[in-house]
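Troubleshooting: if your tokenizer reports a length mismatch, compare your output against this known-good record of 412 residues.
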Amino acid sequence: MSKSITIEYVLLGLVIALTGFEVIFRASLFLQIALLFLIVLYFISSKRRFSPEFLIIAIPFIIPLIFQGFKFELYELAIKNILGDLMDFLLCYLVLVIIKDRFHLTFINIIFFLAIFSLVFYPTQFLPSVQETIKNTLGSIITPLGTDHIPESHKSKTLVFFTYLFGQDSPGVIPRNCGAFWEPGMFAVFLNLALLMNLYIEKRAILSKKNLVFIIALITTLSTTGYIVLFLILLSRLSFQNSILKFLISLPIIVVFIYFAYLYIWNLDFIGGKVNSNIEARHYNRSSRFGAAVYHFERLSEFPLAGVVLKYGNEEQNVYYTERETTPNGLSLVFLIYGIPIGIYYFVLFYFGISKWLIYIDQKDIKVHVLFFIVSLLLAFSQDITGRLFYIMILFFPICFKNPYQNEHISY
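Known-good structure output:
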């Protein structure tokens, strides 16, 4: 592996880690500044071109924060958030320019490694003595960054590439696979995206080695959204045929697949039962996905054109960790942060970014473009990933993937 490819793995791995690895996603601003400085130095030394179009993408997201600062008289908090957003945007843009020609291959291989690593350590959660030995030795050496304010009872143990989620060793609890991430749902996001890329870009069979690993790892996450999206991806693979005749031939298989998925998967407590309870609790439980959306839009009514994230964040600072109520819905969160106009801009940009990227790598099927977009939205429904680095990177796809890639297909 050449030096440039190794650097690409490190850079994209860093973006993924800062998005959700238990060990680093709460990293301090100082560390993020240091990492950005190193990336800038490498970008300059590699003689790549910085496009002023970066500002066209970034500035619209800064404007609502300026308005919020004046509206709620939170000037210092507004400046901090603006600088933080600009740093995130710049880091994502620079990394994307550096890795773009091997983006999907690098991503698939990173997630494949994380999936394999997780499947090695996941079974230890069913062996209490083995789990405790690992947690008390290796797990006690590595302390996740930014966890000083978290009570010991809510701290997870991490081996960098695998996380023992707190509370999973309680009697009657079925252990879930977090991989390297802070919670299983975030791991499921990346596993589904890797599976989707391997199926539709690399055109690998469903039962290929990597896809089987992704699917098995997904099953061990016990993630509601992860299972629903996995079902959608597999269903799409059966449905997307090159001719009507092939589709009609596949139709009986599709019908049987949907029937058995409903019968044996949807009726599981943590799938259909959890979705139904989330819907029923939407008006009083902010920690449910539907409740989070209701809460976000109720808050948004205070300042719908520019969002209310500064006021919301300022109030949360004074609430003790164990008393905080999470609002895990990344779709409505975008509108809470930026307001309705820029929220719409975010998702329009997101779709066109995905479409431009797929065309760049010679995947021109519009059905696949829409599928990638829908899958990305569904995965964000239960995670705040829309405000994290990996999804922010996708916002810069339109200016980085302009012309179809001319070089021969690269595989490594």
